[in-house]
Amino acid sequence: MFYGPLSSSNATIASGSTGYNVPLGNYALAAGSPAIDVIPRVGAGTTFGLAPSIDFFGNPRPDPVNPNAVDIGAVEFAATGGAAIASVTGGPLAFGNVAVGTTSTSRTLTLHNTGTAALTGIALTFTGPFARATAGGTCGATLSAASACTINVAFQPAGAGAVTGSVAIAASVSVTGSPVTLTGTGVAAGVGASLTPTTRNFGGVTRGSLTGPVQVFTLTNTGNVTLTSIAQGALGGTNSTEFFIIRLMSTCGPAGGGQLLGQTTLAPGAACVVTVQFRPLTTQTTGIKNATVSVTNAAGTQTSTLSGTAN
Asked: Are 261 and 255 in contact (CB under 8 A)?
């Protein structure tokens, strides 16, 4: 008994048996076969949509030569005679300064296959403190013809100083542009934050008024690592009761107490806000009022001074 075109392998029979152990035949379509491009994309009763998107060998269906019909059988004729053409773009990648012991934001490379056959056996090899990012992109082991996928790369410095590495992309054909050079500089981790403006005079406001001037104070992460444990803004000082934090218009710290949006962490360079209004009380005296607004976080407590005149 011989194995025909529905078999994906040729079973091994005990040695010495006549007629067995013959190589699996090539059942791909030959040029001129009546099975080529028989099933049209459109038309009454067509079953084009039932055909898988790739053939037995991983090549695209329909083939790029005739995208409006597919062949009968498991192998697309045009695809079997094609070849993959691979290239990578987006490099070199420069990550700049990244704190030691942290992972950078990812940078993206794009792998292209402009050929007419699938690119297979895709594998990545990294050197230096670089790796595929946790969200590593869309590339897998195979890339269909006439398509592209992405590779996300991250920098993970283990020590201070400039470093150079690479990522090499191997596949069933050589990849133009590979290996890709990767560079970055590890720097000491630093936690820092600032609250601006550092001082604000709200001017004169009639006691009992709810329409006094408003000031937005901005907390910015000035360090090179994520700022954590951010609390809501708080008032202090001699006349703190005559100033008011508008929680609805503030974002620093967890949500709650009238604050709808909360930010308890900030990436380097990111910011949140605390909004303050001067509301002198009718139960208090006229004259100059002084207070502070502050935000506490992993970098300490940042404070701005407030002043205004109650009329």
From this structure: yes
In this structure, are residues 110 and 68 in contact, taking their beta carbons and an 8 Å threshold?
no
Cβ atoms of 76 and 63 within 8 Å: the answer is: yes
Cβ atoms 145, 53 nearer than 8 A: no
- The answer to whether 281 touches 289, Cβ cutoff 8 Å, is no
pLDDT digits (tens, 9 = 90+) for 93-112: 999 999 998 899 999 999 99
The predicted-structure confidence for 250-276, as pLDDT tens digits, reads as follows: 999 999 999 999 999 999 999 999 999
C-beta separation of 132 from 154 below 8 A: yes
DSSP state of 210: S
- pLDDT at residue number 46: 63
Domain boundaries, the chain: 33-82, 86-187, 193-310
Instruction: Please tell me the CATH code under which domain 193-310 is placed.
Output: 2.60.40.10
The two structure tokens encoding residue 216: 């937005």
For 73, the token pair is: 């059988």
CB atoms within 10 A of CB 169: 23
Side chain identity, residue 55: D
Q: How far apart are CA 72 and CA 79, in angstroms?
A: 13
Q: Which residue has the tokens 């590779």?
A: 151
Nearest-CA neighbor of 224 among 92, 93, 106, 96? Answer: 96
Q: Which CATH class is domain 86-187?
A: mainly beta
DSSP E strand stretches across the chain:
39-40, 69-70, 86-89, 93-99, 107-113, 123-127, 130-137, 147-155, 161-170, 175-176, 180-187, 193-196, 199-205, 214-221, 234-236, 243-245, 271-278, 287-297, 300-310
Residue whose pair of structure tokens reads 């699996």 in the numeric block:
24
Residue listed under structure tokens 């981790």: 189
